[in-house]
Amino acid sequence: MVASGVFITDLQGKSIISRNYRGDFPISKAIELFSKYLNDVEEESRKPIFHVDVNGDFESGDDVGMAGPGGQTFVYVAQNNLYMCAVTTRNSNVALILTFLFRLGQVFKDYFGSLEEESIRDNFVIIYELLDETMDHGLPQALDSTILRSFITQGANRMAEDSKSKPPVALTNAVSWRAEGIRHKKNEIFLDVVEKLNLLVAANGTVLHSEINGAVKMKSFLSGMPELKLGLNDKLMFEATGKSNQARGKAVELEDIKFHQCVRLARFENDRTISFIPPDGEFDLMTYRLNTHVKPLIWVEAVVEPHKGSRIEYMIKTRSQFKSRSVANNVEIIIPVPPDVDSPSFKSSVGSVTYLPDKDHIVWNIKQFHGGREYLMRAHFGLPSITASDVDPEAKKKGENSWKAPIRVQFEIPYFTVSGIQVRYLKIIERSGYAALPWVRYITANGDYQLRMS
After folding, report:
1. Domains annotated on the chain, with CATH
2. Model-level pTM greater than 0.70?
3. For residues 353 and 364, is the Cβ–Cβ distance under 8 A?
4. What is the rounded CA–CA span in Å between residue 371 and residue 368?
5. pLDDT tens for residues 199-225?
6. 352 vs 359: CA distance, rounded Å
7. How many whole angstroms separate alpha carbon 75 and alpha carbon 65?
C-alpha cells in the first residue's frame, strides 16, 4: 500500500481534516475531485473505489483501483456523517487501504468515544498526531490504540521530553502487541476452552444440523517477555510428529482455525506447535470450528393437547444426554405458546416455570441439571371463547406461526467439552526463570440450539 494522502469530509464532500504523506499529488485537488464525484454521481451508482483519469473523468469497471500514469485512485468508507478517504497515484493494494481506513476509524472511536464530525473538529491536535503515527510516507504503521495511547494521550498532546529521541519499543519491536518491562506481583495465566453448540433437531428427532464453534481464551498476568507453548490433542499434530499411537482415539481434527497475531504461524504450519508471546491481559488465542454430528446434550419432547378451543395443555419432557458426573447450570427451556392464552398454571418435577406474555413463550428454569436425568413439566392455559382469528383469518395465520416456532434451550456445562478437545500441556519459558501458575478450564454452552415441535 502506498497512499498519497488521507482526508476526512462531511457528507457533501467538504473537507474537515487532511494529511498529505508523499507530496506527489495536491491534497486540495484530491478533495476537489472527491467532492465532484459525490455531486456528479447518483448515490446508488457510487462505488467505494473509483479512478480518475488524466482528463478528470471518473472510471469504473474491472480495472477500477488500478491507477495509470497521471491518474488517481480514490478509496473511501462512510462512518456515520463522515467520509474517510485515501487517494493513491500508484497501483496500490486497495484491500489494504480499506482495512487501514476501517482500523483508523476504530482508533478514533477508541480515543473519542464516537466518530462524528463534532468529535473530529474538537480534537484536531490529537488527530493530526494520530495521522502522523498511523502512516509514514504512505505506508501504514501502528494501528493499535493501546500502543498509541502510550505516547499520544487526550490530556497531553505532546510527548515527554525524554521519549522524543526514540520511538516506543512497541513500534519497532517484532512483538508489537506487548510492551517491555511488564511486572506482576503474582505470575498467573488463565486458559478457558469455550465451546458453543449449534443444533437443529427435526420434530421426528433427526438431527438436521450440528456444529461446534470453539475458542481458546486467555488472561495473561506474566512478567517480562515470556514465551508460551500450548499443546492440544490435535489429530494432525499427532500425525505430523509420528505419535498417532498416543492419541488413543481421543485426537480432535480442528477446522477453520484462526489465531491471534501473537502465534508464530510458520511454526504451526511446520509441526503444529502453538508457540507465542502473549499480550498482557485478556485475549482470544484461537478460534476453531467442527462441523460434526453431535447428539443433543439436552433433549426436549413436547406434547400439545388443545381442548375444543377452551384450553390447551403442554406436556414437556427433558432428558440430559451427557455423563452423570457433569452438570448443566442455569438451564432454560423456552417453549412458544399461542399469543392469546390466559390463566397459566404449571406443575414441574424440578425447577420453576415462568410465563412471559410479551414474548409469547414460557421458560422452564432448571438451576442444575445433572447428567443422565429426566424431568417432566406440565403447563395448562385457558383460551378465549372468541379469538381474533374468528374475525380476521390473517390473525389466525400469524398466531399459528408464532407458537409453532422451535423450542430453544440455553445452558452451560463446566469442566466439559463436546468435541473432546484437551490441553495436553502449557509451557511457560521466561529468562528470569520465575514460577508461574497456569489454570485451565473447560466450558460447553449453547449456541443456536433449537428443537422443532410436531
Report:
1. 5-172 (3.30.450.60), 188-294+418-451 (2.60.40.1170), 298-414 (2.60.40.1170)
2. no
3. yes
4. 10
5. 999 988 999 999 999 999 999 999 999
6. 18
7. 8
